[in-house]
Inverse folding.
């Protein structure tokens, strides 16, 4: 039986490889995701490990807590006086101090900030006396040895045309300054540091530039021979101030990685979710393709049965075939994933997420998961068709045109499919609208509901194929004449088959439609919030994505002629009520630039916070039972604790606000944060937004190239950009599943052409031209694709409307994105056209005489 | 693949079962229901003798194919029952019928029904492969020589002529030495020269191996090689004739059609 299966596969290579393609892409996505995230992980590992090369133990600043999914937490520095004390310890062979900063913005030759793709612009001190600790290597030139000297990374140098001897502008904690490039260096051991740039300075220069005079961020220590790390650590520990910690290098690398938080894991699971969608679509395609081939092989199975094959042997023959196809496809997908990882990385760079890359990691786990999941999905998808094959009766071997008998369950079919659909709708509605359900079960209900919804719609779709084909086929009939009519009729000839082919495309289109509607709602809500809150004339934000603005920019603008009000909004992290929060700080003028809808208190609250007060959104206060005057113990990253009391609450717009859960005065914030940073600086100008004011402000900002000046309307428009970028990323990732469904249409058409060989021969014999034959197949393909689009857009709109409705308390509004949906329909037509290329060619190429005699 | 239904090797061909190989008792078969119902068989009684070639003849719609399908356990009668190799078919489930088929039944089809991806040899061996058995020493080689395919073993069906394909099909039917071979219009898809060769082969298998064979045909020349010819009309056996010349068979057929 194995031989029969293998030979059968070999004889149907083309069809088998079409089936396989449906699995290949999904598996490639799984393997690509793992390869990419492992490679990024490896990149970070290498960077962190390399940073402490030759050191045995490391003393570093210690933040009181981590904030892994909001504003970063500044690691406090410690006094330089620690270094001589450590050097004096008997077990220490060498100890060297260093400072670093992630706000050393390098400028292009035209004075603009170099874009680091969301990565931090890093700066380090290098002490040539202790070069054994230097993680970088010069590619040309010399190390910086005095003030005004810098070494920059080779990537930045080559991208921006900088050479040794050139002058380069650097902005960090103050107006931009010019430095002379003495050398160019690279980070040892990684292929790419992502977008991150780095600049190296002589220690004293670095301390001054980073605003850390008399302070250190790290001490790297080599022990004397025979002194263990543990001994060294216990000797150093008593010397440390509260803001410093000592660890062996391995522990320090782990600690550094914590700062990445679950980011890489998040990326991995998000991408795996898209892989799962592609595989889900793939399983539809496989099940459909196998059903068709099995129908076509009825006589073969019947003959096997007459010569003694048992039902189980027939079942195994089909399942085995699926296993082999699934396994081979998974192997191909696995290796394709290596390439896909590179494409995914390019995609992320394109949307502004440039991550470090180590050497490509092809882990055993990647191989196992890819192969097992790919093979298993194929196997599961084959079960139903395989069961159908076992129902082929032996007598089919002697009867012409024998069809598969219906299952004894089939009379329950329509009821079952209706029940599945209703259960799906109930689950989805419960998940979206039900009240008092915990997040876990809610997401589970939604997830299972959506899966069932796709299955349910596909089960019921057969019933509407005919009417849909009549509507969608109308243009084909009008434009295409006879081939058009035939195409329409062919599409509705086997409704179950067309429905299940279209269903694969439906899934992808339903998801993109959902994303479009959800995105539209999100945008509307966000726009509304920004519109309500933002009443300043101008905003200055950072040119560096994901990195806040140095507080020096706001300072630099105070008192300039084109400003009436300069009010910064600081952003940071603090810990209170048992968890770490994003927090903000404002000055007394904030009511003039941000409209605050006070619930308790009034516009005088921000000015009266002092060092003992805070205000928060009314929702946060209510959720945490805070009343006016309620005390709150706040811990800052340095470990310092202060007690403040609630002085006011405001109603936050549904779309959110720029403020964290607690808003403090700038005075309190700056007293506890060494390197304060602004999320934005808001400005009112005399006479509002005028060309004159804009020009003057631009001029004032020349010294601060990182500051990006926007008028109110520009700011509102730009604030949508991250949402649009995210939507585009989702579309691209979902396109994968649309491509899988495209292969599904190709499969069905190729098999259909094969099945109708004799009929096509007849059509050609009575005068159909090759061009007409091709057209007939093409129209059928487009009609099928449009059916998928119609179903998908309907399902997607339903899901989108439901979720938007469920989130209406977040300000989401349902608006049908007409233009986007039109693009989707056009995309579906393109999918149909592309899918028809190969099948149409095969149909047109058939030899008429042979086709007529074909049995 | 492992074997799912065990068949004891010694049980296959040489087993002697007392009495007739196949018996049919009051077989009726009705297709459809109500006004549109058609009675294909209306009470057929029959015994097929061991080691003989029996031909079943009759005009289209006489029920000859239906009779064969029911005797071969491909179809079920509406009334009456069949005993094949001592087993009453009506009582068997699918697994038991599959078992019975492996042991007792060989098939030859009008359209050959070979698997296109297998070689001639593999096609012939398929029933044994499926049952997880090996051919007896010498028997398979002997068989391939007998059917004249010794030099065509590695060819695929597409590389063989119609006659050669039917030889493969005959060898496939004989390879497991079944109790009875059913041939459904074995020459229906062949030219007359090739037909003669195939008929010679069938006759030879009965004479040399004592292979009980039942053949449905509408070709008088084919029927003329049989030891016994049954004529069916309107779902009943109307005449039971011993071996006869083609001209006699034709005369009998004409007489039947004229009724």
């Amino acid at each position: 039986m194995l031989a029969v299966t293998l030979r059968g596969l070999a004889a149907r290579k083309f069809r088998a490889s079409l089936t396989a393609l449906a699995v290949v892409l999904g598996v490639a996505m799984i393997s690509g995701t793992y390869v990419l995230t492992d490679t990024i992980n490896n990149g970070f590992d290498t960077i962190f490990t390399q940073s402490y090369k030759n050191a045995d133990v490391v003393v570093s600043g210690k933040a009181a807590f981590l904030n892994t999914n909001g504003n970063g937490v500044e690691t406090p520095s410690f006094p330089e006086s620690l270094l001589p004390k450590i050097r004096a310890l008997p077990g220490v062979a060498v100890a060297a101090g260093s400072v670093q900063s992630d706000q050393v913005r390098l400028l292009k030759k035209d004075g603009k900030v170099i874009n680091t793709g969301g990565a931090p612009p890093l700066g380090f001190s290098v002490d040539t006396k202790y070069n054994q600790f230097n993680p970088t290597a010069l590619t040309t030139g010399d190390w910086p040895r005095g003030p005004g000297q810098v070494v920059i990374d080779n990537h930045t140098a080559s991208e921006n045309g900088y050479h040794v001897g050139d002058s380069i502008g650097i902005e960090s904690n103050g107006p931009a300054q010019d430095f002379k490039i003495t050398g160019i260096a690279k980070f040892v051991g990684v292929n790419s540091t992502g977008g991150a740039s780095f600049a190296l300075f002589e220690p004293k220069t670095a301390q001054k530039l980073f605003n850390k005079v008399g302070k250190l961020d790290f001490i790297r220590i080599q022990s004397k021979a025979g002194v263990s790390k543990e001994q060294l650590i216990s000797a150093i520990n008593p010397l440390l101030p509260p803001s410093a910690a000592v660890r062996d290098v391995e522990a320090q690398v782990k600690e550094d990685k914590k700062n990445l938080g679950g980011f890489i894991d998040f990326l991995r699971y998000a991408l795996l979710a898209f892989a799962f969608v592609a595989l889900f679509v793939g399983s539809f395609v496989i099940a459909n393709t196998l059903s068709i081939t099995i129908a076509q092989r009825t006589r073969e199975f019947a003959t096997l049965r007459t010569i003694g094959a048992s039902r189980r042997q027939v079942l195994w023959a089909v399942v085995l075939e699926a296993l082999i196809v699934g396994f081979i496809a998974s192997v191909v997908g696995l290796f394709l994933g290596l390439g896909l990882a590179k494409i995914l990385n390019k995609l992320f760079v394109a949307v502004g997420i440039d991550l470090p890359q180590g050497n490509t990691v092809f882990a055993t786990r990647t191989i196992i998961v890819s192969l097992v999941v790919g093979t298993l999905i194929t196997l599961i998808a084959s079960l139903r068709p395989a069961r159908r094959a076992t129902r082929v009766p032996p007598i089919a071997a002697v009867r012409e045109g024998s069809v598969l008998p219906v299952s004894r369950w089939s009379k329950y079919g329509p009821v079952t499919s209706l029940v599945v659909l209703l259960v799906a709708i109930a689950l989805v509605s419960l998940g979206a609208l039900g009240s008092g359900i915990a997040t876990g079960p809610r997401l589970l209900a939604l997830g299972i509901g959506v899966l069932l919804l796709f299955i349910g719609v596909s089960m019921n779709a057969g019933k509407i194929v005919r009417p849909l084909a009549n509507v969608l086929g109308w243009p084909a009939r009008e434009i295409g004449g006879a081939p058009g009519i035939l195409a329409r009729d062919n599409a509705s000839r086997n409704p179950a088959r067309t429905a299940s082919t279209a269903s694969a495309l439906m899934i992808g289109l339903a998801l993109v439609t959902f994303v479009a509607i959800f995105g539209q709602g999100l945008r509307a809500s966000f726009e509304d919030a920004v519109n309500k809150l933002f009443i300043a004339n101008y905003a200055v934000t950072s040119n560096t994505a994901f990195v806040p603005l140095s507080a020096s920019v706001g300072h630099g603008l105070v008192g300039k002629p084109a400003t009436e009000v300069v009010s910064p909004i600081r952003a940071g992290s603090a810990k209170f009520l048992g968890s770490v929060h994003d927090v903000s700080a404002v000055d007394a003028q904030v009511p003039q630039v941000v409209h605050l809808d006070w619930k308790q208190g009034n516009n005088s609250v921000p000015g009266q916070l002092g060092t003992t007060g805070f205000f928060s959104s009314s929702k946060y206060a209510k959720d945490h039972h805070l009343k006016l005057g309620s005390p709150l113990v706040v811990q800052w990253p340095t470990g310092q604790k202060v007690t403040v009391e609630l002085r006011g609450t405001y109603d936050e717009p549904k779309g959110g606000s720029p403020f964290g859960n607690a808003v403090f005065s700038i005075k309190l914030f700056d007293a506890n944060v060494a390197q304060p940073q602004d999320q934005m600086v808001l400005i009112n100008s005399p006479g509002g937004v005028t060309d004159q004011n804009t020009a003057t402000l631009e001029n004032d900002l020349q010294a601060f190239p990182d500051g990006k000046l926007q008028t109110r309307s520009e700011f509102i428009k730009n604030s949508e950009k991250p949402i649009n970028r995210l939507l585009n990323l989702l579309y691209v990732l979902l396109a994968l599943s649309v491509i899988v469904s495209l292969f599904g249409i190709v499969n069905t058409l190729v098999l259909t052409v094969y099945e109708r060989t004799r009929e096509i021969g007849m059509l050609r014999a009575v005068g159909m031209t090759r061009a007409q034959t091709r057209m007939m197949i093409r129209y059928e393909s487009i009609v099928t694709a449009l059916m998928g689009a119609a179903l998908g857009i309907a399902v997607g709109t339903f899901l989108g409307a439901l979720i938007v409705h469920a989130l209406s308390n977040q300000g989401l509004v349902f608006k049908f994105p007409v233009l986007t949906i039109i693009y989707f329909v056009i995309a579906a037509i393109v999918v149909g056209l592309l899918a028809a290329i190969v099948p149409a060619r095969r149909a047109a190429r058939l030899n008429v005489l042979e086709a007529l005699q074909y049995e | 693949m492992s074997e799912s239904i065990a068949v004891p090797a010694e049980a296959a061909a040489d087993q002697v079962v007392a009495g007739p190989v196949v018996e049919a008792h009051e077989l009726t078969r009705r297709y459809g229901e109500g006004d549109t119902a058609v009675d294909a068989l209306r009470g057929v009684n029959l015994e097929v003798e061991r080691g003989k070639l029996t031909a079943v003849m009759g005009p289209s719609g006489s029920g000859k194919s239906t009779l064969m399908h029911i005797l071969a356990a491909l179809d079920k009668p509406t009334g009456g029952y069949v005993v094949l190799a001592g087993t009453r078919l009506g009582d068997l489930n699918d697994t038991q019928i599959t078992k019975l088929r492996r042991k007792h039944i060989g098939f030859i089809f009008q359209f050959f029904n070979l698997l296109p991806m297998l070689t001639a040899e593999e096609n012939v061996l398929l029933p044994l492969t499926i049952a997880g058995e090996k051919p007896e020493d010498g028997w398979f080689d002997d068989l391939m020589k007998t059917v004249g395919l010794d030099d065509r073993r590695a060819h695929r069906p597409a590389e063989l002529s119609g006659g050669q394909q039917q030889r493969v099909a005959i060898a496939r039917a004989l390879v497991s030495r079944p109790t009875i071979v059913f041939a459904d219009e074995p020459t229906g898809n062949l030219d007359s020269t090739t037909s003669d060769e195939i008929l010679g082969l069938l006759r030879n298998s009965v004479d040399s191996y004592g292979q009980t064979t039942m053949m449905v045909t509408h070709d008088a020349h084919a029927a003329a090689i049989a030891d016994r010819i049954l004529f069916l009309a309107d779902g009943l056996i109307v005449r039971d004739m011993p071996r006869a010349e083609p001209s006699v068979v034709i005369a009998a057929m004409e007489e039947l059609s004229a009724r």
DSSP finds 26 helices and 25 strands in chain A. Residues 544-705 of chain A form one domain. Chain A has a mean pLDDT of 86.
